[in-house]
Design a protein that fits this description.
The protein is mainly alpha-helical. The chain has five helices and no strands. The mean pLDDT is 78.
Amino acid sequence: MPALVLLGSTALMVLAAAAPGAWIDRFPSVCLLRLAGLDACPGCGMTHALWWLLHGDPGRAFASNPRVVLVAPLLAWLYLKLVWNAPGFSSALPRAGRSAPD
């Protein structure tokens, strides 16, 4: 199951990075609090922020939601942890104090 999650999340990131940057602006807000008529929640704009960060535009990412500076590293750490725990990945890497297999 973790391998399937890893494959799916990697595929989504590749597809999102390949899509044109302005594509995200065509979609309406998906924030449930905003759709319910309440003021914007702390997470509003995070999808746009992560999108712009993935497209290499940190200025627009920060303008969409300044909390992206906290969320993006956390998501990157979770993704790397998922990669590290993928079957066969970490066992193929040489460890400190051990020589690499010949």
